[in-house]
Amino acid sequence: xxxxxxxxxxxxxxxxTACNNDHTIESTELNSTSSIxxxxxxxMSQPLVKKNIPKxxxxxxxxxxxxxxxxxxxxxxxxxxYHFSNIKQPIVMVSLFATWCPPCRGQIPHLSNLxxxxxxxxFILSALVHDDCSSEKLKKFTIAQKAMFFISNNKQENLKFAxxxxxxLGLTKDFPLPLMILFVNGKYFTHYEGIMPEEMIESDIxxxxxxxxx
Length: 214
Hints:
CATH architecture: 3-Layer(aba) Sandwich
Strand content: 15-25%
CATH topology: Glutaredoxin
Shape: globular
Largest sheet: 5 strands, mixed
Number of helices: 5
Strand order of the largest sheet: 7-6-5-9-10
Helix content: 25-40%
Number of domains: 1
Structural class: alpha+beta
Order of helices and strands: HEEEEEHEHEHEEEH
CATH superfamily: Glutaredoxin
Number of strands: 10
């Protein structure tokens, strides 16, 4: 009975910590809504954890992210520098997610809070991957979840970016969702696998801001 209890607890934790992208993929059009707001900062005291990734290859990359209203940003990567067009904020977070993933849904309100709180310095770009959600369902989903950040529905480009970045992070094609990558002034800074406490991400952002504002 004791072994059965621990086995059940382990399965529960794995289910709600992160989703792996072994979900069935179908070819459907995806749409999203976006809204960016700002808010006051608040001091946090969580430790900063920075993860290293392998050195960049000389190959150049280009990805175009578009939301449901056809607002777009083009990401160009050269010599390990990530340049996002039309984004002025020094910190960019790219979040890979799917609507069928419970941790992804759980992370949305926290990302919305962070986007509003750090409007002047943070741009959150969420990209839908490995999802067969229809355009209409996705639109209703983003409204119901009150996602207050840019959501790219350019599925093909989103997936191309995921296939490029995950090996650099030491992850397989079955990477956990949500997967959030933080870039500071065009350079990779850290990433988060699975659902993360809002306070932990906020602490990292505040420590970054202290450094770049010196």
